[in-house]
Inverse folding.
């Protein structure tokens, strides 16, 4: 089946054409330059940018997939038949979600094909199947899923495609959000994840070490909390620079900032790995899927590999390729394809900015 997918949940405008397991095109236009001066995503600006960008991104994706212009002629495409149009219902920014919702509905009506709304977080989970120009080996179930993106940190028990139970969620800041806020405190720029990783890598290569930050494990639950870790970084900077460091915009020297980044990154990675290992032990599952923007972090990947090396039961950790960790329409197309494959054509089509809170049942620790 051939699927056209649109993704505009936050600050990437993306369109993909998926034919079976082949990615014919996957165009991603990032808004990072637009939001960099604000050190974070401004929702209204993001929505307007999606509205401006979606026609060009859609046109580019279709052209790269071999469709001729004009794309629509009397409701029929100038190219192979498209079996479904897929879009992210949520979670995400309300205005941003509305752009792909309207664009997808318009395309589906002109094409005379079905419209499917999917969960953006399921896209991050399935992204590990994408490799190179297509979908690689399917996920082996059951498994534990860890979704770590800019706005969400969730731990799932997955019994099959579309069969997910939520074990734990972040109670406040998500891991990616904490990276952005720490980078802002240190004056490292936006986006924070790559900036913090780069500074930490330099510190590690130089043999620097810093006092460790606390690990917010909360051992009686699978939930996460990273706001306290972010506050611990702020207190460390206050101790080093004085109480007025934030108002006066005082900055640590690059080497000291790198040591703080290294300690922070270690704390985040240790917390994510330990929670996931505990979940595997609790359910007797030794397969793990890690997706989302933070899954691109090399330290996190290394710690997961070390934690699962030599475990009984054929333990294995699968990550999405780094280019598929951040938001992209290929993972959304894959969600739609998996839905079509199991005959799950129906479902809600309204946007749902807080979809993660109402998607799948919660499991008690």
């Amino acid at each position: 089946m051939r699927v056209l997918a649109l993704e505009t949940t936050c600050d990437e405008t993306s369109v993909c054409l998926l034919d079976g397991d082949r990615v014919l095109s996957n165009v991603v236009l990032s808004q990072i330059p637009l939001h960099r001066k604000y050190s974070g995503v401004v929702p209204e600006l993001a929505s307007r940018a999606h509205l401006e960008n979606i026609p060009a991104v859609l046109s580019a994706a279709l052209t790269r997939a071999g469709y001729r212009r004009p794309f629509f002629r009397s409701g029929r495409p100038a190219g192979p038949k498209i079996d479904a149009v897929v879009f992210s219902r949520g979670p995400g920014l309300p205005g941003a979600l509305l752009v792909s919702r309207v664009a997808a509905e318009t395309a589906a009506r002109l094409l005379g094909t079905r419209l499917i709304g999917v969960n953006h977080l399921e896209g991050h989970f399935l992204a590990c199947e994408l490799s190179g120009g297509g979908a690689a080996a399917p996920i082996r179930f059951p498994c534990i899923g860890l979704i770590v993106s800019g706005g969400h940190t969730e731990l799932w028990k997955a019994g099959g495609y579309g069969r997910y139970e939520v074990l734990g969620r972040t109670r406040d800041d998500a891991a990616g959000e904490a990276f952005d806020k720490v980078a802002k405190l240190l004056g490292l720029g936006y986006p924070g994840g790559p900036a913090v990783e780069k500074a930490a890598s330099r510190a590690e290569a130089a043999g620097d070490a810093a006092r460790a930050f606390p690990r917010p494990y909360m051992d009686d639950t699978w939930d996460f909390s990273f706001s306290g870790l972010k506050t611990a970084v702020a207190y460390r900077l206050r101790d080093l620079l004085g109480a007025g460091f934030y108002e006066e915009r005082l900055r640590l020297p690059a080497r000291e900032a790198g040591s703080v980044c290294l300690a922070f990154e270690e704390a985040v990675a240790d917390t994510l790995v330990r929670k996931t290992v505990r979940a595997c032990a609790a359910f007797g599952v030794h397969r793990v899927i890690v997706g989302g923007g933070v899954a691109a972090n090399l330290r996190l990947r290394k710690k997961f590999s070390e934690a699962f090396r030599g475990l009984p039961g054929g333990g294995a950790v699968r990550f999405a390729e780094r280019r598929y960790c951040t938001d992209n329409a290929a993972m959304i197309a894959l969600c739609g394809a998996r839905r079509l494959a199991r005959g799950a054509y129906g479902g809600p089509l309204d946007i749902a900015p807080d979809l993660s809170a109402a998607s799948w049942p919660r499991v008690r620790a």
Observations:
- The mean pLDDT is 90.
- The longest strand covers residues 22-30.
- DSSP finds ten helices and 14 strands in the chain.
